[in-house]
């Protein structure tokens, strides 16, 4: 049966919660599995949190099969990526980097595409679902930066972002716009092929090599710490199942229920940043 902790929002309460988490995790190595909830304090909304509006993400099949969908996506992304690009790591990201530096966390498997773990100083990061800051050609496989594509899209659509500020933006930089009519999409500069964000879409498989690398990290760990994920999709939940099958303790820090709660030795119903910071302090003081 899963133990559950809801700490009080006081330094003493959070410290006690962190001590309870440490008691379950032990001395490591611990693998951290993170989701959108770890980045909400950086101003990036999550998909499935208690206060998140319903969203219907674009599927891989829609993106590759319909030029209209691609125009719609790139127009929204052209606005939204600038918001994600301006975001900075929060204390939860920094705490995980500190735990890695202390030898407690062996690596981070993140379902996020925002690159904030790297920016915070984490050294071993597996970007399970890719990265928003790269673009790949579906024909020649050339990879370019999203910043370089932004310059090309701006040249093709010089007035498109005028007056567009403070729009709702999803974790993958997809902004909500009233209309995307007239937006011009850029093709691959090398071969003229279709450009796609280097992100694993719904309906698309995570590359096998990436999955095997993440499994190896879990196999070598003594425990798994889940931070800010509802574990709704199998691509992340499978690592929790793997740890549970091996008899390794799993701690979940997440506001709201997750699909891995039944496998957790401890569930903490709190925000990631204060708990992770208190946990890092617990190990490093």
UniProtKB/TrEMBL annotation:
Cofactor-binding details, from the entry: Binds 1 zinc ion per subunit.
Main location class: cytoplasm
Any GO MF annotation of the entry: histone deacetylase activity, NAD-dependent
Keywords: Cytoplasm, Metal-binding, NAD, Transferase, Zinc
Catalytic residues (UniProt): 129
Taxonomy, superkingdom: Bacteria
Cofactor(s) in the UniProt record: Zn(2+)
GO cellular component: cytoplasm
Region described as Disordered: spans on this chain: 36-56
Binding site for NAD(+): 35-55, 111-114, 228-230, 254-256, 272
E.C. no: 2.3.1.286
Residues where Zn(2+) binds: 137, 140, 188, 191
Localization: Cytoplasm
Enzyme class: transferase
Domain Deacetylase sirtuin-type: 10-285
InterPro entries in the cross-refs: DHS-like_NAD/FAD-binding_dom, NAD-dep_sirtuin_deacylases, Sirtuin, Sirtuin_cat_small_dom_sf, Sirtuin_class_II, Ssirtuin_cat_dom
Catalytically driven reaction(s): N(6)-acetyl-L-lysyl-[protein] + NAD(+) + H2O = 2''-O-acetyl-ADP-D-ribose + nicotinamide + L-lysyl-[protein]
NCBIfam families in the cross-refs: PRK05333.1
Summary of the function given for this chain in its UniProt record: NAD-dependent protein deacetylase which modulates the activities of several enzymes which are inactive in their acetylated form.
Family stated for the protein in its record: Belongs to the sirtuin family. Class II subfamily.
Name by which UniProt lists this protein: NAD-dependent protein deacetylase
Organism expressing this protein natively: Streptomonospora mangrovi
């Amino acid at each position: 049966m899963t133990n559950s902790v809801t700490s009080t929002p006081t330094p003493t309460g959070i410290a006690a919660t962190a001590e309870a988490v440490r008691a379950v995790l032990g001395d490591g190595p611990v693998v951290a599995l993170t989701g959108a909830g770890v980045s909400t304090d950086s101003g990036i909304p999550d998909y499935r949190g208690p206060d998140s509006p319903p969203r219907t993400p674009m599927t891989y099949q829609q993106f590759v099969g319909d030029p209209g969908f691609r125009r719609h996506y790139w127009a929204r992304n052209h606005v939204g990526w600038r918001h994600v690009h301006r975001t900075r790591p929060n204390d939860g990201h920094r705490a995980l980097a500190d735990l890695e530096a202390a030898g407690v966390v062996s690596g981070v498997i993140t379902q996020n595409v925002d690159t904030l773990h790297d920016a915070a100083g984490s050294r071993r990061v597996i970007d399970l679902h890719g990265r928003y800051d790269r673009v790949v050609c579906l024909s020649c496989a050339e990879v370019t930066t999203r910043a370089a594509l932004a310059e090309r899209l701006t040249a093709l659509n010089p007035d498109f972002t005028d007056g567009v500020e403070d729009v709702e933006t999803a974790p993958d930089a997809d902004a909500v716009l009233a209309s995307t009519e007239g937006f011009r999409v850029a093709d691959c500069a090398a071969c003229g092929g279709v450009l796609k964000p280097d992100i694993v879409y719904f309906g698309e498989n995570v590359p096998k090599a990436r999955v095997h690398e993440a499994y190896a990290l879990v196999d070598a760990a003594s425990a798994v710490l889940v931070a800010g994920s509802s574990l709704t999709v199998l691509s992340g939940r499978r690592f929790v199942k793997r740890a549970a099958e091996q008899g390794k303790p799993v701690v979940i820090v997440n506001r709201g229920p997750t699909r891995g709660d039944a496998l957790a030795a401890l569930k903490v119903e709190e925000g990631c940043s204060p708990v992770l910071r208190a946990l890092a302090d617990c190990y490093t003081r």
